[in-house]
Amino acid sequence: MNDRILKAADRLVAEGEFHRIIAMTEVDVMRAAVLRERHDIPGLRPDDALRMRDKFLMKECASRNGVSVARYRKVTNALEITDFIAEVGYPVVLKPVCGAGSMHTFVIDSEQELDQVLEQACFSGSAVDMMPELLLEEFVPGEQYRIDGFYADGECRFMTVARFIGTHLDFLHGRHVGSTLLDAASELSREIVAFVRDVLERRLPFGPDGLFHVEIWQRPDGKLVLGEVGARLGGVSIFEENRYGFGVDFKMAAVRAFCRLGSPQWPAPDELQQRFAGHVVISPQAGYLERVPERCPFDWVLDYRVGPAGRRYSAMRGTNGELATVIVTGASEKEVEVRLQQAAQWFYDNTTWTD
Fold it and tell me: What is each CA distance from 133 to 56, 81, 136, in whole angstroms?
């Protein structure tokens, strides 16, 4: 995160001939929008991009347009938190309005946990005498899914669904998180795709072109609930998971389409899907990594990447500093999940950390 990037990019755009600006990461969504407006380049403008970035405005817009979201409130102090909890009960989720990488996000299950979060000065920890706005939501039980792909020329060119294994907070706290692709022909995948297409095409100001990363929940009663929408490429190894599962490079296909070099004419995902695939990313510990396996012994592993031993690592601050990535395949979504857990446990068993 470096605020000089916008200044440098503005100079490059002013001096060159740029026809598109594509945001690949969360922190670049607003930068790209500001540059587009400043230099009259097609794409999301700041007002609409903000609804893809500010989670409060996103939920306001979605709920106003009939999309199911968790109950939420913008809060600026501890008393507003306790008032909200009195209405919805525990657990609740506290996060930055415009956060990234799950940083400074807390799932609060009790008054004791709330006190621990408040003791970290989440409102008054700034050197500036101000009370920042945070987003507080009710916790949604059930399964969590992510949906990734892109639109070009107003048409959905690629959209796939995967189920999360573990949570981003597990990942931030020294463990792992992963996902497994759904069968694109399944009834659940079709239901989720229809839900997300309705959100992107009718409920939020997404626009005719763009990459997207959407997170939703399915409650135990089957109801789908919108979590958040990002106008950018999904993080960690989501792109690679899709490449192994569907055999296409949707990231570069999107870039070519945005640059008017042609949009892909791929078949529907249920015809395009070649295999079940999933990935798991494992976070580093805070300490010295003495030993780590350089190769993964399982024949169902498609890709294995790991950081080097013989150096000191810090605990993660955001979900973009993984130590290891494992991508696997299997005969079914369930087998992929089992293998991801097996691969993660093998990694823990064969890694040595010291202080």
Answer: 10, 11, 10
